[in-house]
Amino acid sequence: MSMESAEKSAVNGIRTALGVGGILAVIVGVLILVWPGKTASVVTAIIAIYAIAAGLVYAGLGIFSKTKGGWARVGHIALGLLFIIAGIIMFANLQAATGWFALFFAILVGIMWIVEGIVSLSTLGDASSKGWTIFFAIVSIIAGVVLLFSPLWSALVLWWLLGIALVVLGIINVIRAFTFGKQL
Question: Can you give the residue ranges of every domain in the chain?
Fold first, then answer.
């Protein structure tokens, strides 16, 4: 295989990845915007499937491992059972699990934004633009507090923004797929 052929093959692979990734992002983004609740439930179901699969792997490691010690095997089995139980509970009441994940995510983002604002204030001495750093810190802290005081509403807004971002970024990636490597 010549160098030029290998380069074209790599470019085609990248173009395909960009295109497929872009199309998938657009599809998921549209699903989020058109059916936000059902899409969130599907995401929660995927997480539940992952939990059960991970639980089976951990339990399998604990049961069938010949090299691990007794406590490591017991720990893997216990962790596996916890994952499996969590996945089953999530499937048993998918709507409640979806709401819980939305609430958890919004609270987590709120805490992270508050911490990010505080950390940016702590770097004020090193900042080249003190005004922008203070502005960013204040906006970040206020946004975090808003998320903490209305996490469910905030989770819905974040979900909606994610849908918009996926559609926009997906379209951009599809365009990139058509234009990537054209200079070759």
Answer: 10-179
Q: Give the model confidence (pLDDT) of 134-145 as tens digits.
A: 999 999 999 999
Q: What is the per-residue pLDDT for 147?
A: 93
Which pTM was predicted? Answer: 0.72
Residues whose CB is less than 8 angstroms from the CB of residue 136 and which lie 6 or more positions away in sequence, other chains included: 117, 120
Buried-exposed string 96-135: b where 16+ CB fall within 10 A, e elsewhere: ebbbebbeebbbebbeebbebbeebbeeeeeeeeeeebee
Task: Say if CB 87 and CB 59 are below 8 A apart.
Answer: no
